[in-house]
Amino acid sequence: MLEEKSSDQLSLALSKFWEELFPKVQDSYAIPKIIERIKAWSGDQPAVTEILCNYVCRYASQIEAGDAAGIVDRIVFRDILKDWRNSLAASHLNRIETAIRDYEKRDVLLLLYMQILQRGSVPAEKNPEQEVLLSSGLVTEERGRLKITNRLYAKVFDLAWVEKQLPGITRPVTIVKSQSKSDRKLSLTSALYPKIAIAACFLAVAGAALTAHLRAANTQAALATQDEVTSSEPAAPTPTFVPSSSPPVVASDEAAERALFDRGVEHATNGRWLPMAREFCSLPKKSTYYMPAQKQIEKWVELYHDDIEIARDTYTQEQDRSCAIMTDGLIQAIQ
Fold first, then answer.
1. 236 DSSP 8-state letter
2. For the packed helices 2-21 and 30-42, what is the interaxial angle rounded to 10 degrees?
3. pLDDT-derived band at 164, boundaries 50, 70, 90
4. Helix/strand/coil percent split, the chain, to 5
5. Prediction pTM value
6. Start-to-end CA span in the chain (Å)
């Protein structure tokens, strides 16, 4: 029941976001990309999703083609992480922090959370500390393991935050014991070995460098003549390293859904309405691309109402099933 409520809240937040942002953005791909990036930060947590959507709407006029995902990253770092206590997320994040601070065995709780933060996940067990972390929303259970709910939480409640709550908790403990006279001698002797080894390595490296220098000097003269002969030839261009900007990994389902959307747009652009219907009608309602596809249909209906209606009816007879996305688009256009 709780998961269903959370899913409903998420759908409502994204629906409102679409309605507000769609008229302000020209690029048909911008909003799906923005939503994908918001989900990457929020992990589908409704409150965080709504906060990020509100921020994006503030900067709608600054959204440019090709930079849709980048604006979400800038919002997260500039408007939230830089000073989250004075951000739109302050109230939500404060509730999580208070739940951790107010726990009686805070040191045990923080040690557990630090393990999750460093390891990525820990086995789920029914103990009071795990229950507190789960009820706070800071962590979630997935396939029998506890993990941090989303990337934003992991950035806000990082190791530096843990250290502030309980100074010294993140530092390794060193155990020092008294040594006997013989132990001290052994330690002194042991300490000399690394120094001797370092000195030997230094001499070896210096010797190798000197040898290399002499060889270079001997070969320089031999190469001079060859350089004179080849100097008239154009030198090969020095390869320049260009760092790749690999796109974020997209889940296979999202990639397939985007392909459906792309093909549908291409078919419609060329007046192929039935193939467009086949692509768009295959999009699941929970897809990130469902609403942009519906909005595209609403635009096209203004000019090609009869063609789209015929395509919808033909698809329905062909597949022996209805197509909600086209029906909704036709209805919305009439309204």
1. P
2. 150
3. very high
4. 70, 5, 25
5. 0.59
6. 34
